[in-house]
Amino acid sequence: MQQNFQPPVPVDPHHLVASARLSLAVTPPNSPEYRATAHRAVSTAYYAVFHALNANNADAIIGTPLTQAMSDDWIRTYRSTRHRHAATRLDRNQLPLSNGARILSRSFSRLYNARIRADYHPQTHFDANAANYWLDRAEVAIQELQQLNYNERAIIAAITT
């Protein structure tokens, strides 16, 4: 390894979920910030899974970076996932994958749609129950992704990049 080489450190999806849950817990339901907090939590639920997917894809395609060049390729792969493309491809996936991969696929596309509503549709209202529902879905999807075998993780990477 190169002496000053530092491998990339992706965003921890579990920390994103925990941060969103904390924000929901400390924001009073009748405060002016409540609606924004709930919407942000739904958006964060999606982004937690998105970052988990990005790390999966970079690991499956590039592997663990051992050099700066590999690190640069890993980061490019991590950042190459397009939101709508990944959601559409996972939603339409017809490959014979495990139940865990199917849970991830369905959850990702549904979380993507919830995030679009939370971020771009002002008529949509999420409360803490809805936000926690999406955070729960995100945690399950992340867990399922992280438990897939290498072959399925590589298939997911091929489908979404």
Write a brief caption for the model.
The chain is mainly alpha-helical and 161 residues long. Helices cover 72% and strands 0% of the residues. The mean pLDDT is 94.
Structural class: mainly alpha
* Rg estimate, integer Å: 17 Å
Q: Count up the domains.
A: 1
- What name does CATH use for the topology? Four Helix Bundle (Hemerythrin (Met), subunit A)
CATH class: Mainly Alpha
Number of helices: 7
In N-to-C order, the SSE pattern is: HHHHHHH
What is the annotated CATH architecture? Up-down Bundle
Low-confidence spans? none
Shape: globular
The total count of strands amounts to 0
Strand content: under 5%
Task: Give a short account of the largest sheet.
Answer: none
What's the rounded overall pLDDT mean? 94
Describe the structure.
With 161 residues, the protein is mostly helical. The chain has one domain: Four Helix Bundle (Hemerythrin (Met), subunit A) (Up-down Bundle), CATH 1.20.120. It is built from 7 helices and no strands. Helix 1 runs antiparallel to helix 6 and helix 4 packs across helix 5. The two termini are 28 Å apart.
